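Annotated sample (chain length 496).
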Amino acid sequence: MKKYSVKLLTLLTAVVLLASCSDFLDKSGTGSLPADQIKSLKDAEKVVNGFYVQMKWNDYYGTNLMVLGENRGDDLRPLRESGGYSAIYNYIFGPTQNSYSAVWAKAYNVIMNTNVFLQDVWENIPAVSAADIATKNDLKGQALAVRAFCHFDVAKVYGYPYQKDNGASLGAVVNEEVVSLGEQKARSTVAETYVSIIKDLEDALPLLSKSKHPGNFNYWGVKGLLARVYLYQGDYENAFKHADEVLTDASNPYMLTTNASYVSSWENGDSPETMLELKISPDSGLDNNGGVDSWYYIMWHGEGFAAGNLVPTDAWFAVIDEDPNDVRQDLIETKVDATTTPPTSYRWLAKFRGNSGEGDFKRNHPMVIRLSEVYLIAAEAALMKSSKNQGKADTYLHTIRKRANASATQLTATVDLVLKERRKELIGEGHRYYDLGRLGLMVDRSGSDNQIEMGNNYVIVDPWNRSGTQYQVILPLSSDQRTVNPAALQNPGYPD
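Output written by the structure step:
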């Protein structure tokens, strides 16, 4: 097999999965394992679990992925200019601001480790019994799914939305093999990146377990992710197919969280509808500062909490307030910011209350995919596919609305209504900016509450950059990455 040498990371070699146990294996594990020392299924399971550990850190799902999906949109805003990721809100990105572009490095860190596992480890894992063979296959399926997921994140953050130009713009460096130092590889187009993503996910499906495992990908989580990928691509037939199969297959072990348990589910973890969340505990290494580096820390948490600086916008409150009996109203609290003169009353999003078992709001399980999202994917795709299915769209939208308020009346579903429901249901989970971007809709921050010393041209934001002047709607590759891999071209508009 040909080996490509892509200097995407700092000095990560092709023969070691990672040198630091805090970066790779959870503290409950035994440390990192060189590829030639992985001798058993138990060892291999630790390695695969390590992929998810890498993903939960603040430079990936612990902060950056979430804040890039939310703070560039119209539903969350900083209270003040200092702190609270105001640079992200203001679209102030440049190739030397590595903290905002660290997603690239971390995603490829994970991708390279999955490649080592798939190429140099998996085949040599002993498995004789039917149960062991099934476990071994499941581990391969998880590695494929994680690799696809990381490529998808890179395409979202560093490439324009697929539907802008049918994927013709620059996407990820598609990396499906073990790499060694010395060579370079160019970026693929967004369309080519999606081909790789979809192939990995489709290949993973028959290998994966159908049992619930909320901290790891399983069959159902990958079906849901496939539905999301196809939705972003604008392939609504396949988006509907996968989402509908998840929702109609009697063997699917997931069910929606009930109205009565909805609020508490956000602090208990492992809700009936969680298809994948990244597990956080006080000793699991979310960051080096007890959760303070996570983006949940910067959410407004009431009087006396000076660090709190992110609240929903008036525009989002107007949407959620359309139904005072919506259970999601109970995720909102009103507190006073005593640090301002005079003190200011704010409503804030108390959705992420901390699920470490100790009530620590700084520690939340980053939510990757829930059954609620699959319902809304199915509803939107049912309306958008060539053979529109209004009945399914009505049913699936109503299911989420009725869970929020048992007295909700059934509406005739429209794409606008589905997007509104996504705003209510998925706020804070990293979707809003990409929802607007994939459909070519504007980010409208023209309300006065949304403008925090807004500079340049980012009061009305065009994620497709039709004018050619809003190039900062996608992130640049960092100068470090460009130095080690000049073949990976910089995004247009940014200096090399």
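Annotation: The mean pLDDT is 87.
Annotation: Residues 130-158 form the longest helix (29 residues).
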